[in-house]
Design the sequence.
């Protein structure tokens, strides 16, 4: 059986459409909230900082070990040079060849000590740089975490406002649709689902306000002559066409 509805009910369908359009707009507004992408960007940034921080901390502890090793290398060379020097000072070595060998070793050790001290200094510098990198990254981590918390709060506040408004509209929609025939609502909802959220449109100045295509004169005549409770459909988009005093029929 064809769906029928009184002119008032058809007019109410346009009000329902108005509410549904608002709901759709709110849904898009929610999905398009700038804070969503801002929060995502900050989460990615924070993840990157945390990874770099782990790497920087690992580098710092590796360099610390290297530094201790370099210190111990220097100490060993210094200790050996001292031992040699003590032997020399004590006159423990008298044979010319042995003496020469010992002096040569002392000279070699002094050179080696200088080289190792250079290495130690370089590692100390690297260690300080790595420590600074950890400090900088920790500061970045704190700053980004705070910013993320602010953006998340702003996003949730925006969501709460939108959800509050949506819930109020959903309530109005429930009240309005409860006064309309079930088969009319079912038809309207089905068309709405298939046609970008618009199930019912006003005829205005000879065109469908759903697809904005001009309705030909013959079809206008047909609609004009329909029984008041008959449901008109757009020839082009199949949406429910609502005729009111504004339609100019
Ligand atoms: Zn249409």
Sequence:
């Amino acid at each position: 059986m064809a769906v029928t509805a009184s002119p008032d009910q058809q007019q109410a369908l346009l009000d329902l459409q108005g509410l549904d359009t608002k709901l759709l707009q709110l849904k898009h507004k929610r999905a398009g909230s700038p804070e969503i992408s801002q929060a995502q960007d900050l989460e990615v940034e924070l993840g990157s900082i945390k990874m770099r921080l782990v790497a920087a901390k690992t580098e710092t502890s590796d360099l610390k070990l290297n530094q201790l090793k370099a210190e111990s290398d220097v100490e060993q060379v210094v200790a050996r040079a001292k031992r040699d020097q003590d032997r020399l000072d004590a006159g423990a070595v008298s044979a010319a060849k042995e003496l020469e060998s010992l002096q040569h070793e002392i000279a070699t050790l002094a050179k080696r000590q200088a080289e190792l001290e250079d290495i130690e200094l370089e590692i100390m510098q690297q260690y300080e740089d790595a420590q600074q990198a950890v400090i900088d990254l920790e500061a970045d981590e704190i700053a980004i975490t705070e910013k993320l918390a602010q953006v998340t709060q702003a996003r949730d506040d925006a969501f709460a406002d939108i959800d509050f408004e949506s819930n109020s509209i959903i309530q109005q929609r429930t009240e309005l649709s409860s006064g309309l025939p079930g088969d009319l609502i079912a038809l309207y909802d089905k068309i709405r689902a298939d046609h970008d959220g618009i199930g019912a449109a006003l005829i205005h100045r000879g065109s469908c306000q759903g697809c904005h295509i001009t309705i030909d004169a013959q079809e206008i005549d047909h609609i004009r002559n329909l029984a008041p409770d008959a449901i008109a459909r757009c020839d082009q988009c199949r949406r429910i066409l609502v005729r009111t005093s504004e339609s100019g029929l």
